Automatic annotation (TrEMBL), chains A, B:
<dbReference type="Pfam" id="PF01425">
    <property type="entry name" value="Amidase"/>
</dbReference>
<dbReference type="InterPro" id="IPR023631">
    <property type="entry name" value="Amidase_dom"/>
</dbReference>
<comment type="similarity">
    <text>Belongs to the amidase family.</text>
</comment>
<protein>
    <recommendedName>
        <fullName>amidase</fullName>
        <ecNumber>3.5.1.4</ecNumber>
    </recommendedName>
</protein>
<feature type="domain" description="Amidase">
    <location>
        <begin position="85"/>
        <end position="526"/>
    </location>
</feature>
<dbReference type="InterPro" id="IPR036928">
    <property type="entry name" value="AS_sf"/>
</dbReference>
<dbReference type="InterPro" id="IPR020556">
    <property type="entry name" value="Amidase_CS"/>
</dbReference>
<keyword id="KW-0378">Hydrolase</keyword>
Length: 538, 538
């Protein structure tokens, strides 16, 4: 297929315009606000929804005062109608999109219609439709929603052939649970970078500072939740794609163990049948307890009925320990963490110690650098290099962060069966070595950095060794927001060469920590993370 | 390496002799009995232990009257000492080995020493060492037991380099639980046939008729349990290797879902790091309830502490349904089941109907023949063809059933990464199609044949499409013994071409049925299988 530049540009532009056209006139920001919101503006736009005059006072309260747990209680009690809540979040999503370019598809009308249906249900049946009754939930573009395109930002996927005929398994579940779906959120070309940019929808900007990345690949979702255009969003993660945007946008973000949350029936930038690392679906939220809510509600609905690949492992209700034994991940000298990330981690450790928890600095651990290199090989197994073919099919070029991606192995498409046996054997050895650390130290969880960096200027985020580690190991892992980068304090040490650190440019970016546990120890992890989250807030 | 015929024959013969030498003189059968026990003798040897005069009356009672559940109660109560029980089973194992050639390694002295230790523990502590206190358990040769060789029947593995320095994870667990280990059991060269023959230990014979195979690859284990030389044995299964010997030898045999029982730390005939189908460990027993015992005891000991690859999915205690909805697997016309297997299945269906259970004949199901073909490709991914290299390394030839194996793909060692993507995509589709059958029919379990055939004359067993199906799908599946082949009744239909059926030759062979459930529905499966097992016994 040959295509001229104008072809792919025009196709992308038309698609994007068709989405923007669906924003009602009265939800549109004034031109002067729009003029200020661009990727070169060092602007925090999180306050604009409140100030722009588009939201009513009630709508500001609904979208700013509560988390999902609160809202669900009010929806179930009829204190708020789903119509009111859905309208508020649709409007805020429209505003957020104009500021951060966080959305791909919007289906506001369908959402309003469903909200009305749910309100009628509640009125008639005197009970909520389900445990997520009436709550608007945002989903990453990769999820299929009947009637909407799943373009994944590939120009070659635009034009109707990716219009979903079936919901993804999780989408069907969320609807069965009573949720309202209304938006899909932006992602990077190929889904394999921390910069959510593509040639259909453009680039998602960080709500806290538009010059910074919102993270990726669930960057649109990070911006949506960071803007409180949803209090519960669903992303996916094969190397940090939930946790990196959560860090960048100051939200909670949870990568569950593989195969606990339905992942089936999604669009994919690559090729079906990969023998590599499993991608997982998980929540981005504004509160810790909403992470638990998501897990308990989905697991409570027997997700194995919706997706053959989901483990038949019901959620275990455990009593939480009073004090934790927390292993701290040693920083790999190849990946020194930037001063604000160091400060967030040190602060967390100090607070946890002060609260009576035991900190166990882990000594030798299997090389994080090796795991990071090995996982890039796992990402690069497909001899057909399908994601790149999907780019080439329209004539569009690679975005910069894909062209420079650390997640594409030098052996991309050239790894053979021998290599895969070796990769698997090495990974099993690494898992066994880590297993020994757990069983010999008796730690409850591991505390460490999310990334080397906070949100970075666009196209410079690069590698994510501290999140890929847990994909490599299949460890459930959660990002807990904690503090913000401060150029006055976070000056760093002269003798450490920080990859591209610029205190000025990242000033104000959210920071956070990451907590992880062993495979399928999601329940134990969330119990511990709840305690840690409370300590960090105190 | 070059080796003459005499080299590999001599190495194998020396190794085998060294094992036989460890049988005390007073446990040896008279020459006239030994002369009758050979692979061309149509002889049922299951009665010989009772009649041969080597076992005391108590030892006959201990080895014949009880299952593991009974024995554990008596051991815990001090009614029998572990010394008495262990001695009885050591002696019976020695007898069984002389008749069926079922063993590889024996460590009777160590077992007796441990039994004494456990008896002292009970006397001193007034409580059993653990839930398997004092019980002798037999293990397949592939398990590593410190100080014993894991030759897997490869001549090239003899000579000290496979002497285990660490126990397999499950072996360590069983010891921690109080079991006594005393024997390892024979397997086929490469572990990939239903004929447990190799050039080190020779061929295992079927206790019920020595001219028939004991099955494979856990054929030694089948013969051990079939001879009641153990009431609980542990095998492994990647295509039927627990269930086929269970069928052949008239025992219960259970293939749990992958990764529920520790599999780690075993010897392997192949190459570490396979991206193919997972092998699993599971029990062969003389009673249904011992299958449950094994699962509950192992799962109750937090097996994920012993093996990083074990799912953190505790055993779920469920109440059993009163009546079952049982789907029956359609017989694939490519694999007609032999008349005795048909009769066993028909009898089971009749009895279950009569007992008030609902039988739902499944209509269209994804092709069993395709699954069987696809799994052979999964077995054949290793470009180094390591199992064959391990044969060639000593100069020994392939055994006949390996040379003619239906489990070796025509593309053995030649499948590439593209093929693997396609295999995985096809498998996922098949799993999804089956998932739909479960969710739309509401069946509790699937009932079907174990194999096309009963135990067959040596080297003619061939394919096992009805067991490989459940490895392909990762379905937990159990063999329940039911009836025996009878040449007077099992005449078959003229219009069906049964693969090698000979009513005369298989007369007296045990028959049985197989019951399966969805991945990680082990608990539901055993609840249903318990009901089915009771109905079949009635």
């Amino acid at each position: 297929m040959t295509a001229t530049t104008s072809d792919w540009k025009a196709i992308g532009a038309r698609k994007k315009q068709s989405v923007l056209n669906k924003i009602p006139q009265e939800w549109r920001l004034p031109a002067e606000t729009l003029a200020k919101a661009h990727e070169d503006a060092e602007l925090d736009v999180t306050g604009i929804p409140r100030e722009c005059g588009i939201l009513t006072a009630d709508e500001i309260t609904i979208t700013e005062k509560y988390d999902a747990t609160d809202l669900l209680a009010k929806l179930a009690a009829g204190e708020y109608s789903s119509l009111a809540v859905t309208t508020a979040f649709c409007k805020r999503a429209a505003i957020a999109n104009q500021l951060t370019n966080c959305l791909t598809e919007t289906f506001f009308d369908e959402a309003i219609e469903r909200a009305n249906y749910l309100d009628e249900h509640l009125a008639k049946e005197k009970k909520p439709f389900g445990p997520l009754h009436g709550l608007p939930i945002s989903i990453k573009d990769s999820f299929n929603y009947i009637g909407q395109e799943t373009t994944l930002g590939f120009v070659s996927f635009v034009g109707g052939k990716t219009v979903a005929k079936e919901h993804s398994a999780l989408v069907k579940m969320l609807l069965d649970l009573g949720a309202v779906l209304y938006i899909k959120s932006n992602i990077p070309q190929t889904l394999m970078t921390a910069d959510s940019e593509n040639h259909v929808f453009g680039r998602t900007l960080n709500p806290h500072k538009l010059t910074l990345t919102a993270g990726g690949s669930s960057g649109g979702e990070g911006a949506v939740v960071g803007m409180r255009a949803a209090v519960l969003g669903v992303g996916t993660d094969i190397g940090g794609s939930i946790r990196v945007p959560a860090l960048c946008c100051g939200t909670y973000g949870y990568r569950p163990s593989a195969s606990r949350i339905p992942y089936g029936g999604q669009g994919t930038p690559g090729r079906v049948g990969s023998p590599g690392v499993l991608a997982v679906a998980g929540p981005l939220t504004t509160s810790f307890r909403d992470v638990r809510l998501f897990m308990e509600v989905v697991l409570g609905q027997q997700p194995w009925k919706y997706d053959h690949a989901v483990l038949h492992a019901p959620w275990r209700q455990l009593s939480a320990p009073k004090t934790l034994t927390i292993g701290t991940l040693p920083i790999d000298p190849a990946f020194p963490i930037h001063p604000p990330m160091r400060r967030a981690l040190d602060s967390a450790i100090s607070k946890l110690k002060a609260a009576g928890h035991t900190i166990v600095p882990l000594g030798y651990v299997p090389s994080i650098a090796v795991a990071n290199r090995e996982i890039a090989d796992y990402y690069s197994l497909d001899p057909a290099i399908t994601p790149f073919k999907n780019i080439e099919a329209s004539g569009e070029p690679k975005i910069r962060s894909v062209a420079e991606s650390p997640f594409v192995s030098k052996r991309n498409g050239k790894l053979d069966m021998d290599d895969l046996y070796t990769l698997n054997a090495t990974r099993a050895q690494c898992m066994a070595a880590w297993h020994k650390i757990w069983t010999t130290t008796g730690i409850d969880v591991i505390l460490g950095p999310v990334c080397e960096t906070t949100a970075m200027p666009h196209d410079t985020f690069g590698n994510t060794p501290y999140t890929t580690l847990y994909n490599y190991l299949d460890y459930p892992s959660i990002v807990i927001p904690h503090l913000k980068a401060d150029k006055e304090i976070d000056v760093g040490d002269d003798f450490i060469s920080y990859k591209g650190y610029n205190a000025e440019k990242t000033h104000g970016a959210p920071t956070g920590v990451q907590v992880a546990a062993r495979p399928q120890f999601d329940e134990e992890l969330l119990n511990a993370a709840e305690i840690i989250s409370e300590v960090l807030k105190a």
